[in-house]
Amino acid sequence: MTTGLRPQDAVDHAASRWRTDVLPLLVEFARIPNLSPDFDPDWQAAGHMDEAADLMAAWAAERDLPGTTVDVVRLPGLTPTVLVDIPASDPGVMGTVLLYGHIDKQPPFDGWSPGHGPWAPVVDGERLYARGVADDGYALPSALVAVEAVRAAGGRHGRVVVLAEGSEESGSPHLPAVLAHLAERIGTPDLVLALDSGSPTYDRLWVTTSLRGALVGTLTVRVLDHGVHSGEAGGVVPSSFRIARQLLDRIEDASTGDVLVPELQVDPPDWALEAADEQAAALDGATSDDRPFPVVDGLELDGADSADRVVRNAWRASVAVVGADGMPPPAQAGSVLRPFTSLKLVVRIPPTCDPDVAGAALARTLTADPPSGAEVLWDGGQASGGWAAAPLAPWLGEALDRASLASFANPPARLGEGGTIPFMRWLSERYPDAQVLAAGVLGPGSNAHGPDESLHLPTAERLTGALALVLDAHAGRTGE
After folding, report:
1. Which of 135, 163, 179, 197 could share a disulfide with 448, CB 3.0–4.6 Å?
2. What is the predicted pLDDT for the residue at 361?
3. Could you count the other beta carbons within 10 Å of the beta carbon of residue 302?
4. Among residues 103, 102, 99, 67, which one has the least CA distance to residue 86?
5. What is the number of other CB atoms lying within 10 angstroms of the CB of residue 162?
6. Cα-flanking dihedrals φ and ψ of residue 393, to 5°?
7. Closest by Cα among 382, 421, 391, 392 to 139
8. Range 240-255 burial, b when 16+ CB lie within 10 A, else e
């Protein structure tokens, strides 16, 4: 069934509206330091999250989408959620598409380049530099512009619900209650697209088909009530850092980075290995000069080859020490044996790994039989499961092909993402019959969560155009 959509008109409309309408919104949004709750316990008193939600809602309410309702859903003690409900283009189109994004942000971080800053947006070349614009402020306005592009190009679309939450960067702890509260209003979507994922290159539409889960917590080793002279205690009192190293060696092979805990290991399915080969080929053939990581010269990456690195990132567990306490800066460090060492760990787990089983195994491994009888504590926080997509319906596979070719002039590619979007697992479980996918703009140089986070503007425009074509294809699907 055709809908009359003129693909190039849809792509052109998305690009033009992006620069005139979306970019000014994101510049204003970027100035708001609306940190996710984990990073700002006083977020309610600060009011930044409400300011960001109200900004997005006001912009959405001004769009030319007749019949649309826009609400900021506020539940006691929970971050606000922006909900935009757009009716189908005409009564003959059935089905609901749920588009997901988030508005909360990571902390500012150090090391921004001169003239750039987390809350001081700057357009430099083809990029908008600021915290939270690519992760994930662009999502809601891009979704609405995509709907507008469908209509402007003579296409059709089903009911579209756009949801932008406020706790994703903290593991989405507020989202289940929000989804339960909105269950009747959202209904039962048959297509779910999360606009919060990666794009290893900027030359095609990357469709995320799996995400790793995450276990986040803090390991603390204490050996003294207070610091003592290292000359007196060194060699007698075990170093808290040395014991922490021993404990980390229980969960990770220090020479390879392989995770040793059996409960955190899963064999990748055959389709994931095939997708890894496809992804590696697309990366090897990319024309972008951007390196995937800003590594120092001469650094050897883990993994045997490109395909193996894709599998390691998508389907193998990994450990990252992302923070430390109990250590003064080098310039202020005296000759003192410190009383304790605290290390914040982010442990990524395979997409189909049970987060509760994995979390319990990690806690046991770190705390059992403490070396030298030290006091060892594991304060587990976030435990989010991963996600693996169901096979694509034929209509959706064809739609993604057409959308990528029309917007990027290249076929799409599948991506096994190493990050975590808890929403994806929850939605797959809540709507088991829906097609659930993710896409995004976090590509080379975007540096999400770090200094100089940026949004590659041409990719955001093209992704918006591709989304318009997918929405139109959803309206014209044959029931497959």
Report:
1. 135
2. 98
3. 13
4. 67
5. 27
6. -65, 150
7. 421
8. bbebbeebbeebbeee
- Please tell me the distance from the alpha carbon of residue 100 to that of residue 199, in angstroms, as a whole number: 17
DSSP structure class, residue 112: P
- Bridge partners (DSSP) listed for residue 128: 123, 455
**In the β-sheet with 127-129, what is the strand arrangement from edge to edge?**
122-124, 127-129, 454-456
DSSP string, 56-76: HHHHHHTSS-TT-EEEEE--T
Strand partners, 213: 349
Give the pLDDT band of residue 294 (cuts 50, 70, 90). confident
Nearest Cα to Cα of residue 355 among 389, 382, 378, 315: 382
- Cα 404 to Cα 420: distance, rounded to the nearest angstrom: 24
Q: Are strands 213-222 and 127-129 parallel, antiparallel or unpaired?
A: unpaired
Per-position DSSP letters for 214-280, written without gaps between them: EEEEEEEEE--SS-EEHHHHTTTSPPHHHHHHHHHHHHB-TTT--B--GGG--PPPHHHHHHHHHHH
Are the CB atoms for 252 and 417 separated by under 8 Å?
Answer: no
Confidence band for 111, pLDDT divided at 50, 70 and 90:
very high
- For 388-437, write each residue's pLDDT tens digit: 988 889 999 999 999 999 999 999 999 998 988 887 888 888 889 999 99
Length of the chain: 480
Tokens of residue 280, six digits: 């590696």
DSSP string, 4-56: ---HHHHHHHHHHHIIIIIHHHHHHHHT---B-GGG-TTHHHH-HHHHHHHHH
- Using 50, 70 and 90 to split pLDDT, how confident is the model at 286? low
Q: How far apart are CA 217 and CA 233, in angstroms?
A: 30
pTM above 0.85, yes or no: no
Contact 134, 458 (CB under 8 A): no
Q: Which long-range contacts (CB under 8 A, 24 or more apart) does 290-296 make?
A: 290/443, 290/444, 290/445, 291/444, 292/200, 292/444, 294/447
Judged on CB neighbours under 10 Å (0-12, 13-18, 19+), 42 is exposed
